[in-house]
Design the sequence.
């Protein structure tokens, strides 16, 4: 075999090995993603059933059918896992909100629809409401700051965009849309928190109407 032929043969072998390695890496990456998703799904079920404090890494690992130590390969601790789970759940809700809001034409009605869909979801999902409104405060502040809740800012941006639409179409005056977004989100949190503290007896529909009346029409008598 000539020198060139031997080189070509080696190159061909290296190419085959590269393909094998790349294939193995893809399979490993897929496996890691699959395991991570399984852990997140299991954690969501455990947190909703037991609450944050009563949930353990062992219970989550058992639900996900992995070893306890495997969870720490993907998440630093229970707090970080909780925040990831909560954030993904909040994003799912926002997708549902968007699907319903886009069917409405009137900009003001869009804001009201956003309010209604969010509150309706919380009141139909007691365990998630407690997770998102009460138990998130049990997470160490440092963990919450470092991990963050990206979905929270997506909600604020979404409300802000609805507000911009209303301004452009002349339905409301020029206002600070960022401040308005924070007010809307804070009012939703207030209503749900009051509902939880009242052992789910507060009439959220009646309270929603009162809060929205102030938000939309203000307090000044014209």
Sequence:
């Amino acid at each position: 075999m000539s020198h060139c032929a031997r080189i070509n043969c080696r190159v061909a072998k290296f190419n085959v090995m590269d393909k094998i390695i790349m294939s193995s890496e893809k399979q490993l990456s897929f496996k890691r993603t699959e395991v991570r998703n399984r852990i997140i799904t299991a954690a969501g079920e455990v947190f909703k059933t037991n609450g944050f404090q009563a949930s353990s890494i062992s219970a989550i690992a058992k639900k996900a059918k992995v070893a306890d130590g495997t969870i720490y390969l993907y998440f630093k601790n229970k707090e970080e896992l909780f925040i990831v789970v909560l954030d993904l759940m909040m994003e799912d809700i926002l997708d549902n909100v968007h699907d319903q809001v886009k069917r409405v034409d009137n900009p003001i009605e869009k804001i009201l629809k956003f309010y209604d869909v969010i509150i309706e979801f919380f009141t139909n999902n007691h365990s998630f409401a407690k997770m998102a409104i009460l138990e998130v405060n049990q997470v160490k502040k440092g963990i919450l700051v470092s991990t963050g809740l990206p979905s929270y800012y997506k909600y604020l941006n979404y409300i802000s965009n609805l507000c911009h639409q209303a301004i452009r179409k002349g339905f409301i005056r020029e206002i600070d849309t960022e401040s308005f977004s924070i007010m809307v989100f804070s009012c939703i949190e207030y209503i749900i928190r009051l509902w939880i503290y009242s052992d789910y007896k507060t009439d959220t529909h009646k309270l929603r109407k009162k809060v929205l009346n102030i938000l939309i029409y203000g307090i000044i008598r014209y």
About this structure: The chain is about 80% helix and 0% strand. Residues 141 and 197 are 23 Å apart (CA to CA). The domain at 1-75 is CATH 1.10.10.60 (Arc Repressor Mutant, subunit A). The mean pLDDT is 84.
